[in-house]
Amino acid sequence: MRRVLAGELGPGPQGLRVAVAFTTSQAVRHDGRRGGYRNEVLSLRLGRAVGSCAVEPGALPDDAVEDCAGADIARLLEHPLPSVRVAALDAYLMHVRPHAPEHGALPYPLPAGSSLEKSRARARAVAELLDVGPGQTVLVVGVVNSLLEALRSRGVSYIPCDLKGGTTEWGEPVATDLYAELGRCDAVLASGMTLGNGSFEPLRAHVLRSGQQLVMFAQTGSAVLPWFLGAGVSAVCAEPYPFFWLDGGPGVIHRYRGTEAAL
Q1: What is the C-alpha separation between 217 and 183, in angstroms, rounded?
Q2: Of 8, 107, 238, 241, which one has the greatest count of Cβ atoms within 10 A?
Q3: Which strand (E) or helix (H) includes residue 135?
Q4: How does DSSP classify residue 16?
Q5: How far is CA 76 from CA 1, 60, 73, 113, 224, in A?
Q6: Quick one: pLDDT at residue 28?
Q7: What's the Cα-to-Cα distance from 235 to each of 88, 106, 181, rounded to whole Å?
Q8: For the residues of 151-201, what is the DSSP string, one character each?
Q9: How confident is the model at residue 27, as a pLDDT?
Q10: Could you report the per-residue pLDDT of 203-252, keeping only the tens digit for each?
């Protein structure tokens, strides 16, 4: 954010205005699955780019969207709401460096299908970024049952962790304190939502010290997290808006691997 505000990564954010601000809210209950869940995402449109940050359903103030529309990126990067700051940063970085092979992104096609079929296809794409095998354990921060299913199919153990707690599809308890679990895993698979709730930077600092692999799957901050490759982040599965659950047709996500940080 400091470098963007200083104009070091592209055009000055003071002259770039958000044309459209909107939220996307969904409730999900897949056939054949025991439970369901809800998602809410704040998105900001800057030119051709859309930046996003997931929030807890109902947590976003009613006037937040109206406050963002027409505002310049510089002001939104200093907004009191973390979700607005992250979405604004995501929109700016998507604007100056969109997901493309010349920027290190490898497109991964998602086939048309039901929401569950597309969820499973995305999960396979994410799981393939982990360099782990049977007998090793992955801490999964931000529980997505399709991701757990993909790890189970590879014989990889996991520790599910989510601030909401609860249980997985298979009745496993979900931990709520990710820092208490970091010593029990070989690698970490974390949601981009860690950007919005403030847990990303402590997690990144931990893996830099420990040498553990950190793979991010990101609808939140999909254009932000690739900048940290080689600076704690091992790989990123980036999924900008529109997300796979919004459309039954074919789609694409973008995978990054690398050892050099862009910052």
Answers
A1: 21
A2: 238
A3: none
A4: -
A5: 11, 15, 5, 37, 15
A6: 74
A7: 22, 11, 21
A8: HHHTT-EEEEE-TT--B-TTSPBPBS-HHHHGGG-SEEEEETHHHHHT-HH
A9: 80
A10: 999 999 999 999 999 999 999 999 999 999 999 999 999 999 899 999 99
pLDDT band, residue 9 (cuts 50/70/90): very high
What pTM, to 2 d.p., does this model score? Answer: 0.93
Token pair 């704040």 in the structure block, residue: 42
Q: Are 73 and 13 in contact (CB under 8 A)?
A: yes
Average pLDDT, the chain: 93
Say how many residues make up the chain. Answer: 263
Q: Do residues 226 and 238 touch, judged by C-beta distance below 8 A?
A: yes
**Amino acid at the residue 241:** Y
User: At residue 8, does pLDDT exceed 60?
Assistant: yes
Residue with tokens 């780019």: 49
Name the one residue in this structure whose structure tokens are 């996307």: 24
The pLDDT of residue 35: 59
pLDDT at 65: 96
SS (H, E, C) 26-69: EEECCCCCCCCEEEEEEEEEECCEEEEEEECCCCCCCCHHHHHC
CA distance 17 to 73: 6
Query: Residue 214, SS3?
Result: strand
Retrieve residue 47's tokens: 């030119």
Maximum C-alpha span of the chain: 52
Does residue 261 have a pLDDT over 60?
A: no
Q: Strand pairing of 49-55 and 106-110?
A: unpaired
The answer to whether 200 and 175 have CB atoms below 8 angstroms apart is: no
